[in-house]
Amino acid sequence: MKIRAAVLERTGGPLTVTELDLAGPGPGEVLVRLHASGVCHSDQNAIDGTAETRCPAVLGHEGAGVVEAVGDGVVSVAAGDHVALSWAPSCGQCSECLRGLPQLCAAAWPAMGVGGLLDGTSRLSRDGEPVYHYSLISSFAEACVVPERSCVVIPKDVPFEIAGLVGCAVTTGVGAVWNTAQTRPGDRVAVVGCGGVGLSALLGAVAAGAAQVVAVDVSEAKLEVARELGATATVIWAGSPEDTAEAVRDASGGGVDAAVEATGRVEAMLTAFLSTRNRGAAVLIGIPREDAVLPLPALSIPRMERRVLGSIYGSSRPERDFPLILDLYRRGRLPLDKLVSHRLPLERIDDAFALLRNGEARRAVLAL
Q1: Residue 87 pLDDT
Q2: Can you say whether the dihedral through the CA atoms of 298, 302, 308, 309 is positive or negative?
Q3: Which of 98, 145, 204, 330 is the most buried (most CB within 10 A)?
Q4: Alpha-carbon gap, residue 17 to 286, rounded angstroms
Q5: Rounded (5°) CA angle 199-205-207
Q6: pLDDT tens for each residue of 239-284
Q7: CB of 8 within 8 A of CB of 55?
Q8: Residue 70 pairs with which residues in a beta bridge?
Q9: pLDDT at 111
């Protein structure tokens, strides 16, 4: 079938909306007609080379839509189902999956690096030449073919733009608080970086019953949004990790139990670590450059039992966490609609990335 899609021709190059060929789903695969896709900083990392991506590629990994067809052997979804897409389809059989770590599946991650689906080949092409997938999803398009395990059926009254964000940003942020940090009612939480993922973490902390939620950012406008979403205190960047962390400790009454860092910047990671109190955890979500090094005051790790926890995809199990998150959204406990600040057509994808880069957007969504 013919589809329109935004193609990254080369690292550092433009995104070009053009026509591609999309092959039908193979065994264990699903064809999804996309209705919405979030625009995420991970996509920007692919564009600028922070995360190496095989090109030409169709980016996008926060998609939601309607199943149009399924391949042989697919049993969990059917034509007509509304689905949110997960870019981490665990195999359920590798050593990491058997350890209860599906977000680190040994089968999914190598396939992503190749730019194909789970069998290593692409369903996208142009003039007979392959165009590569991104994160097994490629949602900057009218339709996509994905692994069956990337599809999570959702209620038909959930807006596609909300379901798309749950596919990455929301689950990454909320899951970091719920699953990685295991935040409990009464805990103190700080969020360092108030973009879409950070604000999702903030909403997750509020929903979990955190007694204090301190938001940290370089932008007063973003801190105003954080207050609107439930932050009990805000801290503007004070020029250094040490001074900013001191302000967080003052605002929280001595430090936090979990400090979620959502920027990928080393100075923000150090701020998160220094913001914690005894046995507190810095939960690092942001993806830094490959050569980045994080220096830590070593003595405070054993003496204060401070911890550093990595969190990919919110340590989530999409088949469990997507429905839970969307249930709380439908009940008004997670006001995810407040994260969407801009809605644009696919043809304006460059504008969406400009909004992302200048920090103007809470979250921009492409209507497909």
Answers
A1: 94
A2: positive
A3: 204
A4: 28
A5: 105
A6: 999 999 999 999 999 999 999 999 999 999 999 999 999 999 999 9
A7: yes
A8: 30
A9: 86
Domains of the chain by range and CATH?
2-167+335-367 (3.90.180.10), 170-314 (3.40.50.720)
Q: In the beta sheet, which residues pair with residue 263?
A: none
- Residue 323: Cβ-neighbour burial (10 angstroms; 0-12, 13-18, 19+): middle
pLDDT in tens, 156-196: 999 999 999 999 999 999 999 999 999 999 999 999 999 99
**Three-state SS letters, the chain:** CEEEEEEECCCCCCEEEEEEEECCCCCCEEEEEEEEEECCHHHHHHHHCCCCCCCCEECCCCEEEEEEEECCCCCCCCCCCEEEECCCCCCCCCHHHHCCCHHHCCCHHHHHHHCCCCCCCCCEEECCEEEECCCCCCCCECEEEEEHHHEEECCCCCCHHHHHHHCCHHHHHHHHHHHHCCCCCCCEEEEECCCHHHHHHHHHHHHCCCCEEEEEECCHHHHHHHHHCCCCEEEECCCCHHHHHHHHHHHHCCCEEEEEECCCCHHHHHHHHHCEEEEEEEEECCCCCCCCCCCCCCCHHHHHCCEEEECCHHHCCHHHHHHHHHHHHHCCCCCHHHHCCEEEEHHHHHHHHHHHHCCCCCCEEEEC
Which two structure tokens, joined as six digits, stand for 49?
């080379």
**How many residues are listed for the chain in this entry?**
368
Nearest to 262 by CA among 314, 328, 301, 212: 314
- Mean pLDDT for the stretch of residues 29-38: 98
Using one digit for the tens of pLDDT, what is the confidence trace for 105-153?
998 888 888 999 999 999 999 999 999 999 999 999 999 999 999 999 9
Q: From CA 210, how far away is CA 188, in angstroms rounded?
A: 6
Q: And the tokens for 293? A: 């090094």
Q: Is the pTM of this model over 0.90?
A: yes
- Contacts with 119 (C-beta within 8 Å, 6 or more apart), sequence order: 26, 111
Is 214 buried (19+), middle (13-18) or exposed (0-12) by CB count in 10 A?
buried
Is the separation of the CB atoms in 279 and 167 below 8 Å? no
Amino acid at 124: L
